Amino acid sequence: MSTNLITPGLVALDLPGTDRAQVTRALIDLLVAEGRVTSAEGFLADVQEREAKMATGMPGGIGLPHARSAHVVAPSLAVGRVPAGVDFGAPDGPATLVFLIAAPAEGDADHLKILASLARRLVHESFRDSLRAAPDAETVAEIVTREVVAS
């Protein structure tokens, strides 16, 4: 992959927000600022269409919105910590960690590979805790790169 999946610029440590649309939009804005997404509104519509099909909340306080989109120029992962929690439809309650996977429309294999690799790590409480305790965006990006991308 020529572009790093995640960079410190794609990490938000203390996202405000009380609903999934607000939190998702804040992460999309990071993707736009980093040149990974060409249209915030277009990608948000694609993510919301995907969310309408099935909730993307996972046990352990995880939100995992994702979509393939013509508005995405490179496979990317934006991560946000939401201290107040936001409902992504998980059976055990609100998400305090949100991972937005953005994949180009033609990137089906990349999208599924990222999703599967991330999901395998997220079942481990130690991985989730390390992200919640990380002191800065650089550390979050490093942990995700080491545990998800390199594995």
TrEMBL record:
The keyword Transport applies. Keywords: Sugar transport, Transport. The keyword rRNA-binding does not apply. Residues 4-147 form the PTS EIIA type-2 domain. InterPro entries: PTrfase/Anion_transptr, PTS_EIIA_type-2_dom, PTS_SugarTrans_NitroReg. Signal peptide: none annotated. PANTHER family: PTS SYSTEM FRUCTOSE-LIKE EIIA COMPONENT, PTS SYSTEM FRUCTOSE-LIKE EIIA COMPONENT-RELATED. This is PTS sugar transporter subunit IIA.
